[in-house]
Amino acid sequence: MTAQTLRFDDVEALRARIGEDFSPWGPQLEVSQDMIDRFAELTGDRQWIHTDVERARRESPYKTTIAHGFLLLSLLPVLRQRVDLQITGHAQAIHYGADRVRFMAPVPAGSRVHARARITAVETRPTGTLVTEEIQLAVVGQDKPALSYTMLVLYQAPSPVRTQA
Asked: What's the predicted TM-score (pTM) here?
């Protein structure tokens, strides 16, 4: 599949993508126990369901450890790479915020995950173009998403080139 290339300031072309189905699934990534443990160490969230493999095997309804929801959320920059759309011409893309986050299913340690997205809104702003995307992250082979996230990205124009007088 060849990606459609759209300029960040072609608001009408971006708006034409609103209402489309989700993009194809993007690259896959394994969520290893080591990754989970390092995230727990970094954030201080060492709840046993994430880090204690033996206890999770005995007591968890999943019979294994599961990834932190915020770990999954932090993986979206690499996982939301779209093969169907490339937005170009901007100097920077700023994560402007989130409208909705839902953790809908567990991601067991060792699972492979992937993500897909679709545009849900496009607004012209004085500082650029604000694009809202609904993103789903799922365990490969599972129908139910593990994470649903509505992300706002502000695409900003390059600064004008200044010439010396």
From this structure: 0.90
